[in-house]
Design goal:
Radius of gyration: 30 Å
Distance between the termini: 82 Å
Number of strands: 15
CATH superfamily of the largest domain: Glutaredoxin
Helix content: 40-55%
Strand order of the largest sheet: 10-12-11-13-14-15
CATH class of the largest domain: Alpha Beta
Shape: globular
Oligomer: single chain
Number of helices: 15
């Protein structure tokens, strides 16, 4: 790192030798390095033992393992997506390239549309809006791609009332940015960077908390979906498409095939299949007050959430965070004892020993109070006073006499 050039681009993995997830990522990391090298990419791929290179880990503010980041022109970009080859490669390609990619032909535009579920495009000449768009791209490039294009290369079906403007293409349609209605450009981009309805995993759900929207989730089985799961998925997809104008500003829709994240949020086993609305900005959730069988039932549930008629459960208060920490520790202990009983007993023994030693030292350090027969003691047995206070007390007693 001391010898790197100013324009070098580095993709770095910080790991710890004892980290199981780091070991699982090792073969994927080697594949990424080999593939980028074979493609002639300017990205250098490396890894650093954070327990040895503590100064480097501190410089890049590594908080957990494995930590993945890209260093480009002195700017650090953290990767928070799934630890998969495709996810990391997409992140590397997105961040290493231009902040705003130019689309100079209809063919390039169609190619980009086919590759991305959500695509932001600036249309028009240089303006203050373009400066704001570039500033937003500097921060949000870790999440999504940004493009610019002249008006004449867009499909004829795309109707724009004025230029310059920013357009988001997703869900088979497009929407233009309106400052009066949508507010700050960066906030709008952050809010609209997900499809309206899609398959959601734990990483995506966590990232959706930054959008400020609520998420209506259908929790379904990973395989062999039952009739109820299929009905929930179809119901959410229909409402997301047909009522977009009403609810898209407040809700995202999707389905999850894994319930561990939601179990941690609710601090209990969740029923599958089921429906839930989550507010990731405050770690809160809403449960339907009754059975949801029809479109009307789902709309009433969502309206109740927006109107405040359905109480939000959970939250991120100190009490809730403490309860969630205890719950997560309990789950981890159960997992350790079930998969490795000897290791669980060993770790529990260490914790118990440390706690016992701590209690012993605390008890030993407590001061012992003794009764004194000194003449300066109070008649009621109050401990000996400081010399200055004793003299003051004697002078007061003499005045009283």
């Amino acid at each position: 790192m001391e010898n790197k050039a100013a324009n070098d681009i580095w993709l770095i993995k910080f790991y710890a030798p004892w980290c199981i997830l780091c070991k699982q990522l090792d073969p994927i990391w080697h594949q990424i390095g080999s593939e980028l090298k074979s493609l002639g990419s300017p990205i250098n791929v490396g890894k650093s033992d954070a327990t040895t290179s503590t100064g480097l880990a501190k410089e890049f503010r590594v908080r957990g393992y494995p930590a993945i980041l890209m260093l480009k022109k002195g700017v650090k970009y953290n990767y928070s997506g799934p630890r998969t080859k495709d996810g990391i490669m997409d992140f590397a390609d997105r961040v290493a390239g231009p902040l705003v990619r130019s689309l100079s032909s209809l063919q390039l535009f169609q190619h980009a549309m086919n590759r991305h579920d959500v695509m932001f495009v600036y249309v028009g000449a240089t303006s203050q809006l373009k400066g704001n768009y570039t500033s937003a791209a500097e921060e949000l490039i870790i999440h999504t791609y940004f493009f610019s294009a002249p008006r004449d290369i867009l499909p004829k079906a795309v109707s724009l009332s004025s230029l310059p403007t920013v357009v988001v293409f997703k869900d088979g349609t497009y929407f233009t940015y309106n400052e009066q209605h949508d507010g700050d450009l960066k906030t709008w981009i952050n809010r609209e960077r997900f499809p309206n309805y899609f398959r959601i995993n734990g990483y995506t759900l966590y990232a959706m908390g930054e959008s400020g929207k609520l998420v209506v989730l259908a929790l379904v089985e990973e395989k062999n979906l039952c009739e109820k799961s299929q009905r929930y998925k179809s119901l959410l997809e229909k409402v997301a498409a047909e009522h977009r104008e009403i609810y898209s500003r407040n809700f995202y829709f999707g389905f999850m095939e894994e319930s561990d994240y939601i179990s941690g949020l609710t601090m209990g086993e969740v029923i599958v299949p089921s429906l839930i609305v989550v507010n990731l900005s405050i770690d809160g959730y809403f449960l339907p007050p009754g059975i949801v069988e029809t479109e009307r039932h789902l709309l009433d549930f969502m309206n109740g959430v927006l109107d405040g008629n359905i109480q939000c459960q959970g939250g991120n208060s100190i009490i809730q965070r403490t309860r969630r920490f205890v719950y997560e520790m309990k789950v981890k202990l159960v997992l350790v004892f079930s998969q490795a009983p000897l290791l669980g007993c060993f770790l529990f023994g260490i914790v118990l020993t440390i706690a016992s030693v701590f209690c012993y030292l605390c008890c030993k350090a407590r001061p012992t109070l003794t009764n004194h027969d000194d003449d300066d003691d109070d008649e009621d047995g109050i401990p000996l006073l400081a010399p200055s206070l004793q003299r003051h007390k004697k002078r007061t007693n003499k005045k009283s006499d």
